[in-house]
């Protein structure tokens, strides 16, 4: 079972991330049973079949950095889980997507970082509103993750809200 | 200058611990090169030609004596006895060991310094007028605003992995001395119709491979909203800036491809949501920051000091130095002094460990402890009594810090070039030396008058060659060092990019090329006309023609070894 970090603790995870191929396959891609995080294109293409599973809290959608949130936000707000993919850890678009989901659209569900998620960026991710971090599988052993969680993060939050004690 | 509060200190201390841990994990093989690279860069550490290069932030160029002494100590202990002031008001050490860097950062933290975000694809050290707070032509002091931008941008979680580096400069004077028009964001402090403070916002300026002068996207953003507005700009850039090509990743390319009107529309659409958001500033916050500046209380003085006037009349060398290196101060009886780091024979911007200490002593003795670094790679003593100038000059002279050349040809802006920098195409320091040697006559230099010569070792343009009156750029021609020459650039309110005059030159030709440019100017100038004004009046054509005619004549002369020597 993959390990994730949720609310500052390591835990096992039942969600399976369905990695897509191209857009063409979105309509026909098989979505397995259980809790699944599907590519946005699959959600859009198979919405009638997937809606009940979403309502039951069993379906999440993952977004890429070029997702146009303005056009989609209403559709996504009811999902129990939204994941944002970091194709490389140096691709910082996911931080803005997460910030927008939380501050502009008021998304209150689980917001998960997936992809090239490295422990030296955990604190940035959490401060942008991610509630769950899913590090690259097999990148870290348990000891390393434990160490990451007790390490001092970046104390500095975004100014000036940090100074008001609202971090 | 600004004094840290507990919060600032804790932020910096935690970064030191964090970086020590990251470096230990890297050295233990737990972090790959790729994973460690952005972490070390965000702490100012590059891997260079000889060794790592550590770039230390001098926020908006403000320094105090204790910090200078610490820099001297670091130069002596961890480097080869000197440091280098960069064109972004920062200081660089070229020879530290990677293993020592956490320790150096720890020492810096004890004097409220750090290397945070002096490199990497994040918001870099904010720059400003070195005469901020004391300049006679200033309408709003930019320093508290710079400090607020520093605090806001430090470890900003959303903007630490931008497509590319991001530079902000702030000006609050009539004459822009921070080159805000060649920054990713240039902020111009202005007063609104009701006298309220706000910012004229420029965006998308920058030099490098694709030099562009920034354009205005808002004539007035109220001060309360300035961080929210910057967040809107940065968010549009973070989401839509190019990440597929390093050379097209700066915000200027996005602004250019969208057009400034469309870019502004997108920013405004985002600003609708960030306005009044979490980064809204309040008067209490401005006061909190401004109060920590603790500016020295300058005793009232008469506007003219009689002794000073007599010294000026009696000593020509002193008068020359005053003419070139001393600037007007807003308080009567005071001046600002530029200490030249452009002594003939020295690498421009270099400073020895002993000089670090000596400048600290000068600042303590004569300048109320206030020192500034300039983007022209010199140092400024912000507030000095007229009555103290002569004594200050004598001491500075003995330290090699009083070359009376500020604003003259030998006050060149020069990047480290291929002697140190791994990205360089060509060396820049030896070119500077060759030109210094050619123009070592002070009377001649003073006759030529104000001129800016900027030399970059590659198109990253660290020496801002595009906005030099004369710009020199090192280029690589099948493994050989060649130099392109530009003419007609300018910084300040009328910032304009220079134009390449033609095919590039061999290193040995450059002093002659500069001579031809100067001679053309001397032949054409009107009375009291500066070099750049002559260039703009007569056009670069006549300069260019003469440069190549004389160059060809020299080549011809060299081909005929029996030609008369002259
Ligand atoms: S201009 Fe080029 S050579 Fe000079 S310091 Fe910058 S990157 Fe290095």
Protein model, in words:
Chain A starts with a strand and ends in a 17-residue tail after the last helix. Chain A is globular. Helices cover 30% and strands 20% of the residues of chain A. An eight-stranded mixed β-sheet of chain A has the order 2-1-8-7-6-5-4-3. Chain A is an alpha/beta fold and 167 residues long. Chain A has a single domain (3-155), classed as TIM Barrel (Alpha-Beta Barrel), CATH 3.20.20.70. Chain B is α+β, with helices and mostly antiparallel strands and 566 residues long. Chain B folds into four domains: 6-109, Sulfite Reductase Hemoprotein, domain 2 (Alpha-Beta Complex), CATH 3.90.480; 134-290, Sulfite Reductase Hemoprotein, domain 1 (2-Layer Sandwich); 306-398, Sulfite Reductase Hemoprotein, domain 2, CATH 3.90.480.20; 413-559, Sulfite Reductase Hemoprotein, domain 1. Chain B has helices at residues 6-27, 33-41, 65-78, 101-110, 143-153, 226-240, 251-258, 260-274, 283-291, 306-314, 316-325, 353-366, 389-398, 429-438, 442-448, 510-524, 531-538, 540-559; strands at residues 45-47, 52-56, 62-63, 82-85, 91-93, 127-128, 168-171, 185-191, 197-203, 215-222, 326-328, 334-339, 350-352, 371-373, 379-385, 413-414, 453-456, 470-477, 480-487, 499-500, 505-506. In chain B, strands 16, 17, 18, 19, 20 and 21 form a six-stranded mixed β-sheet that branches. Chain B is globular, with a radius of gyration of 24 Å. The relative contact order of chain B is 0.09. The mean pLDDT of chain B is 95. The chains are: A alpha/beta (167), B alpha+beta (566). The interface between A and B is large, with 37 and 42 residues. The structure holds iron/sulfur cluster (SF4). Iron/sulfur cluster is lined by residues 415-417, 421, 423-424, 456-458, 460-462 of chain B.
């Amino acid at each position: 079972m993959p390990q994730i970090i949720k609310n500052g603790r390591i835990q096992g995870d039942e969600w399976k991330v369905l990695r897509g191929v191209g857009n063409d396959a979105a309509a026909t891609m098989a979505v397995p049973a259980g809790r699944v995080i599907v590519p946005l294109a699959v959600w859009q293409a198979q919405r009638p079949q997937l809606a009940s599973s979403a309502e039951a809290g069993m379906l999440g959608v993952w977004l890429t950095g070029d997702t146009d949130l303005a056009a989609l936000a209403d559709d996504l707000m009811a999902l129990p889980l939204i994941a944002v993919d970091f194709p490389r850890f140096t691709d910082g678009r996911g931080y803005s997507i997460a910030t927008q989901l939380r501050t502009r659209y008021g998304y209150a569900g689980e917001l998960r970082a997936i992809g090239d998620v490295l422990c030296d960026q955990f604190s940035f991710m959490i401060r942008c509103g991610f509630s769950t971090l899913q590090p690259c599988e097999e990148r870290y052993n348990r000891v390393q993750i434990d160490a990451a969680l007790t390490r001092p993060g970046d104390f500095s939050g975004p100014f000036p809200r940090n100074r008001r004690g609202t971090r | 200058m600004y004094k840290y509060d507990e919060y600032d200190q804790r932020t910096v201390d935690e970064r030191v611990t964090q970086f020590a841990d990251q470096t230990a994990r890297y050295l233990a093989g737990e972090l790959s090169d790729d994973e460690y690279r952005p972490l070390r860069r965000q702490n100012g550490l590059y891997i260079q030609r000889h060794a790592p290069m550590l770039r230390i932030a001098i926020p908006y160029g403000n320094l105090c004596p204790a910090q200078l002494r610490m820099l001297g100590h670091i130069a002596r202990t961890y480097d080869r006895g000197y440091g280098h002031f960069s064109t972004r008001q920062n200081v660089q050490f070229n020879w530290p060991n990677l293993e020592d860097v956490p320790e150096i950062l720890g020492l810096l933290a004890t004097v409220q310094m750090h290397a945070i975000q002096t490199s990497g694809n994040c918001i870099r050290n904010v720059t400003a007028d070195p005469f901020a707070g004391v300049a006679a032509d200033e309408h709003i002091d930019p320093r508290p605003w710079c400090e607020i931008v520093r605090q806001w941008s430090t470890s900003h979680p959303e903007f630490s992995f931008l497509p590319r580096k991001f530079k902000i400069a702030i000006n609050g004077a009539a004459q822009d001395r921070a080159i805000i028009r060649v920054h990713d964001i240039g902020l111009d402090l202005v007063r609104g119709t009701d006298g309220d403070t706000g910012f004229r916002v420029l965006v998308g300026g920058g030099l490098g491979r694709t030099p562009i002068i920034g354009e205005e996207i808002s004539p007035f953003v109220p001060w309360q909203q300035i961080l929210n507005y910057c967040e809107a700009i940065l968010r549009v850039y973070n989401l839509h800036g190019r990440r597929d090509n390093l050379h097209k990743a700066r915000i200027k390319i996005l602004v250019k491809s969208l057009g400034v009107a469309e870019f502004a529309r997108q920013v405004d659409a985002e600003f609708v949501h960030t306005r009044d958001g979490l980064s809204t500033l309040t008067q209490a916050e401005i006061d909190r920051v401004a109060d920590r500046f603790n500016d020295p209380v300058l005793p009232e003085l008469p506007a003219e000091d009689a002794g000073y006037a007599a010294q000026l009349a009696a000593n020509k060398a002193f008068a020359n130095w005053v003419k070139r290196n001393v600037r007007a101060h807003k308080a009567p009886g005071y001046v600002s002094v530029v200490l030249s780091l452009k002594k003939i024979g020295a690498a421009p911007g270099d400073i020895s460990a002993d000089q670090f200490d000596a400048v600290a002593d000068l600042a303590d003795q004569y300048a109320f402890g206030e020192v500034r670094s300039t983007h022209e790679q010199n140092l400024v003593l912000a507030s000095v009594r007229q009555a103290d100038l002569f004594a200050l000059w004598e001491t500075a002279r003995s330290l090699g810090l009083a070359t009376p050349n500020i604003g003259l040809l030998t006050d060149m802006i020069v990047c480290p070039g291929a002697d140190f920098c791994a990205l360089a195409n060509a060396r820049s320091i030896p070119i500077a030396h060759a030109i210094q040697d050619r123009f070592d006559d002070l009377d001649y230099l003073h006759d030529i008058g104000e001129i800016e010569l900027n030399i970059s070792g590659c198109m990253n343009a660290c020496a801002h060659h595009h906005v030099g009156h004369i710009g020199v750029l090192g280029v690589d021609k099948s493994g050989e060092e060649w130099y392109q020459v530009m003419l007609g650039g300018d910084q300040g309110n009328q910032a304009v990019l220079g134009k390449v005059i033609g095919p590039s030159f061999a290193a040995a030709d450059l002093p002659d090329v500069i001579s031809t440019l100067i001679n053309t100017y001397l032949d054409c100038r009107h009375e009291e006309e500066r070099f750049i004004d002559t260039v703009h009046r007569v056009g670069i054509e006549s300069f260019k023609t003469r440069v190549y005619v004389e160059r060809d004549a020299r080549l011809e002369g060299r081909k005929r070894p029996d030609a008369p020597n002259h």
